[in-house]
Design brief:
about 0% strand; mainly alpha
Length: about 130
């Protein structure tokens, strides 16, 4: 979830910095990924997605994929090493053992929940047809 949230936030922030509205930026990041891309990749595969999208989407995905891979690989290696050497487990247990863990967790979750991207998401999700049945 951390990787996905990080990618969503980065793309959203770039779009907002370039004049896109909150709802447009959310639609181009989270909504497109969760409502279109990920379900289709799960059902049909990545090769099918490449073969069945616009040339603009094909070229963007093909031409930028390696840069995304190269930039995220070291992060995943660090994460894997922290799991392998036990430091990730130790950190989680230490955090969970704190008497105020639930309160400090709520502060972290509130920061996410109240961030612009997820406030925009709440509005956009409310506009989905399945959420507007009368």
């Amino acid at each position: 979830m951390g990787a996905i949230n990080g990618l969503f936030r980065a793309q959203y922030d770039v779009l907002r910095a370039n004049g896109h509205s909150p709802s447009e930026a959310f639609n181009e990041t989270v909504e497109e990924a969760t409502q279109s891309l990920i379900p289709l990749i799960g059902a049909k595969g990545m090769d099918w997605m490449y073969a069945n999208c616009s040339v603009t989407a094909q070229r963007g995905a093909l031409d930028w994929h390696q840069k995304f891979y190269d930039s995220s690989l070291p992060v995943f290696k660090d994460l894997y090493e922290s799991v392998r050497n036990g430091s990730e487990t130790k950190r989680a247990l230490d955090k969970n053992s704190q008497a105020d863990y639930r309160e400090s967790l709520e502060v972290e979750l509130k920061e996410i929940r109240e961030s612009e991207i997820w406030r925009a998401g709440e509005t956009v999700r409310g506009l989905r047809p399945e959420n507007n049945k009368k």
